[in-house]
Amino acid sequence: MNETRSEVTKQRILDTALRVFRERGYTATSVEDLCRASGVTKGAFFHHFESKEALALSALEYWNQVTGRLFASAPYWQVVDPRERLLAYLNFRAELVKGELAEFTCLIGTLVQETFASHPNLQTACGAGIEAHVQSLLPTIQAAKDRYAPHAEWSAESLAFYTQAVLQGGFVLAKATRDSKVVLDAIRHLKRYVQQLLPQQGTE
C-alpha cells in the first residue's frame, strides 16, 4: 500500500512538472512551486527526486514516453502513400494545437532554450528527444523522396530536422505573441513546402 501511494505521489509530481515547466519555464519554477502545485511536501519531493534538475530529466523521459505513444498510435500511420502520410502527420500536428500555450507547446523546446548553456545534462536529454522524433519520421520521408523526388539534392534527415525547426519555432512565436495561430500558419506553410519538394508527378 505504501509503495503504491509512493508511486502515485511520484506520478503526480511528474504530471505537475510537465505542466508547470511549460507554463513558467525551468528557471522561474522553484521546488516550492512544484510542491505547491502537486500538493506534496518538500520531503516527499526529495524522496523521489534529488533536485529540480533530476525531476526535469525524469520529466523529459516521461514526456518522450507519453508523446512517443501518442505519435505511434496516430492515424497518419494508416496512410499508405508516404507523401500523403507525411502531410497527414503535419495535419495531426495542427490538430494538437489546442487550448492554452502550455497545453500544446513542447517541453523539450521550452527547457532547451533556457538550459542549453547552463545544464548540459538537460541539453543532452532534450537533444536526444528531438533526435528520436526525427528518426521516427525518417522512413516516411525517405520513402516519399525515393518515390517522388529520387534525384533531389536534399536529404530525408535534413527535411526531418527542418520540420522540427518549423514546429519549435512556431511554439516560440506563439509564446511571444500569445497567439496559437502563428503555429497553424507555420504548419500550413510547411505543408506547401513539402508539396513542392515532393511533386505528385514524381519529378524534382
Shape: elongated
Number of helices: 10
Q: Biggest β-sheet, characterized? A: none
What's the β-strand tally? 0
The termini sit apart by 62 Å
Poorly predicted parts: none
- Structural class estimated from helices and strands: mainly alpha
Name the helix and strand elements from N-terminus to C-terminus, one letter apiece. Answer: HHHHHHHHHH
Nearest-angstrom radius of gyration? 19 Å
Helix coverage percent? over 70%
Describe this structure in words.
This protein is mostly helical and 204 residues long. The chain contains ten helices and no strands. It has helices spanning 2-24, 31-38, 42-48, 52-72, 82-95, 101-104, 107-115, 120-148, 156-177, 181-197. Helix 1 (2-24) crosses helix 2 (31-38). The longest helix has 29 residues, at 120-148. It is elongated, with a radius of gyration of 19 Å. The mean pLDDT is 95.
Could you provide a short overview of the structure?
The mean pLDDT is 95. This protein is 75% helix and 0% strand.
